[in-house]
Amino acid sequence: MAILTSRKVVKRFGGLVAVSDFDLDVQERSIHSVIGPNGAGKTTFFNCVTGFYRPEGGQITLDGHFLVGLRPDRITRLGISRTYQNIRLFNNMSALENILAGEDPHLRSGLFGAILRTPGVRKEETAALDEARRLLRFVGLAGQGDLLARNLPYGSQRRLELARALAGKPRLLLLDEPTAGMNTQETAEMTAFIRRLRDELGITILLIEHDMRVVMGISETVTVLDYGEKIAEGPPSEIQKNPRVIEAYLGRGSTDRMN
Amino acid sequence: MPAKRSSPLLTALRLGSIGGGVALLLSLMGMVEALSERDIIAGVISTGIALIVAIFMVFGFSAARAQSDSSPVTRIAVGTLTGAIGESFLIGLVIFGQNVDLRPVFPSASPELYTLLQFGRTGTQAYVTMLVFGAVVGAFGAGLALMPARYRRAIVVGLTAVTLSGLLEDLIHITLATAPGLLVLADRILARGVESGLKPIGAVVVFVLFAIVTFFWGPIRTGIDAGRKAVPPSQRHRAGLLIYGLLIVILLLLPKAFGPYLTEVSNSVMIFAVMAVGLNIVVGFAGLLDLGYVAFFAIGAYTMGVLTTTAVGAQRGQIVWGPQLTFWEALPIAVLFSITAGILLGIPVLRMRGDYLAIVTLGFGEIVRIMALSDALKPFIGGSQGMVEIGVPSLGQVNARLSSQELYYYLMLAVLFLVIFIALRLRDSRQGRRWMAMREDEDVAQAVGIRLVSTKLLAFASGAAMAGLAGAIFASKVGSVYPHSFNLLVSINVLAVVIVGGMGSVPGVVAGALVLFGLPELLREFSEFRYFVFGAVLVAMMLYRPEGLWPEAKRRQELHEADESGPDPQPEVLVTSGGAGSA
After folding, report:
1. Nearest chain B Cα to A167, which residue?
2. Which residues of A touch B351 (CB under 8 A)?
């Protein structure tokens, strides 16, 4: 059954239609990829889902909750976390503090609790810290928790961003080019890790990715966007053969030449 | 510095001219002469001359450093030349000034200044002395550049220590005088005249002491660390408590040693420190640039004024209404009013960021000040005539035993500790993380589930509460409230304290308040040039130490100190074995 559905979503920037009548169904516990040439509207769609943009038309639902018009923090609290194409960490906070900030929706302590440091607050903070340390180990950053996020190497920053997203205990995780800038081995590790998130934690994954080996290797379903419109959808094996997809990627006329 | 290395001669010419220009400016401003009245070392060097020495030393140092690939002899020569060129500007000033009366344009260009710059000599002899002086100082600066860093550090720290102890001679004497044994020491090293600084022998002692400690700081520190490690953690904790206890006892006894004037200075410093701790929450933690912070200070002060003033009624003045509450009744109400104002300001600016926020808050500060001046509110808050007879904190028997300064000292000390405690607790809490996340990236903070509205409003409210508290006590301490006490400059000053101290660092902003408000009060010759020095310090800080005097230390949370050497910091592979993750 679909956890995330999008119906006729339209997002325009002035005269430019970035996403046009976009329909999408992401099945629960699946790994679903969205691909397409640069500027096809993939990230714009992510921004519509997470509340960064408000679409001009259409509706997006998560488990039957309408998402359009909700603030980003409300949407996160409903169970969607994300990472960013260009890494966006809280740079002057430690790695651990980044994860702790990601846990915020699940914490309860308020201003006065913090000042008085009541036993309840102390207990909650200890538990939150334990959870953050556990996530740090989980993404393979044990021992680097006290470094400032901006001082981490690139690969570690990507992992930290994932850990922060996981700290929100999402049911749906949106990953925007998680293997961008990684070498072959790092990419393989990241791919295995994404699969593990789904298999072990049961998190549904919606993924934007340019590396076709990653896309074809882990996705159950692939959706192809071009100029804001869906041009194809199906299992990876079908998408690879789809003439419209090849055309979108390689340019008009290339299918004829290939045939 | 240009990427291409310029020739030694050009370097000396360029840096010497800049240094000479700076020295010329400070002389014509009257700073050199004004400062010459206070000696750093009695009969040897005055603050004014020390200033010139510092300038040429710095430029001689820079010149030698800019020529880092030349031979040592060339580098020393460049420094010497830089100092001499710089000093020749002053020689030019003296020659020119003795022939043309500059005073219509520069009132400070007096014969006294020339005598001072000529070291009391005249004619050619004076010019030669000046030139040699500049050359020697420049050469010394260049020598510092050639030295290994360890020696340089020792000498610079030693010289700074001599300068500071010479400047703060009074303060040191008062502090040492608390113990009879130390008083003897004080008399040995301090000259004890009027603003007379250290005795020459005292200067040598201070210099050698600080230079040696700095030079051996590495081994000393290792020793201290080893000593600390040897102590079991439980006792270490106790030792920490003991140090804090001692600090508190000293702070409690301070007014007795300080006397009324210095106690009064401490009170002003603490009022600014409380405001700075509050503004640090808004600017340092939450990243919301607030240029109208004085508004909350004013609201706290006026609330205290309106609620407690006894100068009410037609025959007593123009104030027509006042409940005449006591100080203690009015204090929480003043804080509450400030918080309300903080939230009221916060709501309209929720969507604003950066520059826009700064402009709107700036306007808010002015609105409050203009309202205080307005005729409409005059019957209640006195307009430009202000309010008088404001309530004094009464503590029964205690009031009789303490002087007014002492009373406010203890009150402010308690308040300062309270706000520091609150600020630290907030910083280390979920609330602090929300503020910092918002400061780092507002969009992402919201996307991880942080509610921006409450986060921003709580930052404004917490900052406003502290400013309101400071304002209420300020009104009571001064005994009156006037609109002109709440101009834009107050906001700017407090912001400068936060920036100089170290944005986001609680101990930093307290240190900042001490430096920016305590020092000018102690060195009153500076007060005339206060804003000039203020500006110069700010520019220098932004260029060379943007993180502030006392930047925030990052806490270690992942690994506690006990197992510091435990796990290796190598990252594990991404896919770890075992089911570590079960979110």
Report:
1. B583
2. none
